[in-house]
Amino acid sequence: MSQPLTPAQLDELKALLLKRKEELQQEMQQNRENLKPPTSDEGGVVQRNVAREVDQTLTDLDATDIVRIDRALKAMADGSYGQCGECGCDIPFERLKIEPQTEHCVTCKGRWEERAGRA
């Protein structure tokens, strides 16, 4: 069983979350710039349209990650950060360092992925 997070661990994870949020916001800004309408020259229109779809998908994924980061930061503020949203156990610091915005322990995440894989 893992231990509750120490203040130093929380500070380290908060810094990771804020850094990742800033990186995602920069990526989203670049993707939005790439989404500007293409010029009308016929040669590269299809290629640009595909690139625009990719940029839109990446922007959507980044936005989803930012929502998860914001939820993690809110949980830090209310004291519930680091607890599995499904079983309530403490999520190990090592897992949180890898994915600080996670809301589930490895066991629950594995069960969720298994169910999603069968659907």
Describe the structure.
By secondary structure, this protein is mostly helical. It has one domain: Four Helix Bundle (Hemerythrin (Met), subunit A). The protein has 4 helices and no strands. It has helices at 7-34, 45-78, 93-98, 106-118. Helix 1 (7-34) packs antiparallel against helix 2. The two termini are 31 Å apart. The mean pLDDT is 86.
CATH class category label: Mainly Alpha
Task: Find the CATH topology.
Answer: Four Helix Bundle (Hemerythrin (Met), subunit A)
Structural class: mainly alpha
Integer count of domains = 1
- Strand fraction: under 5%
Mean pLDDT: 86
CATH architecture designation: Up-down Bundle
Radius of gyration, CA atoms, in whole angstroms: 19 Å
**Helix coverage percent:** 55-70%
Give the biggest sheet: none
CATH superfamily: DksA, coiled-coil domain
First-last Cα distance: 31 Å
- Count of distinct strands: 0
Helix-strand pattern, N to C? HHHH
Question: Unreliable runs, pLDDT <50, ≥5 residues?
Answer: none
Compact description:
The chain is an all-alpha fold and 119 residues long.
Main attributes?
119 residues; Four Helix Bundle (Hemerythrin (Met), subunit A)
Record the SSE blueprint.
Elements: H1 7-34, H2 45-78, H3 93-98, H4 106-118
Helix pairs in contact: 1-2
